[in-house]
User: What shape does this take?
Amino acid sequence: MCMTASLTGVRAAECFAIVPYRAAHLDSLLLQPAQAYLQPLFKPDYASALESAGAFTACVGARVIGCGGVHTLHPRRGLAWALVAHDAGAHFVAIHRAVARRLAESPLARIEAHVDRDFAAAQRWMRLLGFVNETPGGMRAFTPDGRSCDLYARVREPAPASPVSTHS
Assistant: This one.
């Protein structure tokens, strides 16, 4: 719930906030149609496991409109995920900015995301976030229901080495 509502004059029911993810958030998230096939897969142990992965939740008042995060696969690589509510559109600019900020702050050199090939809005969002499609041919039969996905990646190139002075 947004704690600044009384300071800004905005009713709490309208206040957008990013909060640490909790398993109960996933239970109350009503997914957008393109992700609705995932809803039956959200078991309590899965929802709880995401709590330790540094995930976050976007909410408007007490209503969850999205959850996401980056699961670290090894010290240089992570897998981004996002689940978005069917009615999050009015707040998507704020969601985008929060995600972009999290990505920019990440110490990971490579962040990947699996994106449904038929979900054009998600593909467009990945590009806006600086991800590149590394599998233009797709990854066939990737999802539990057999859908194909693309592998998007955002790679932070190492900073160039500073020149070594040979003068004393």
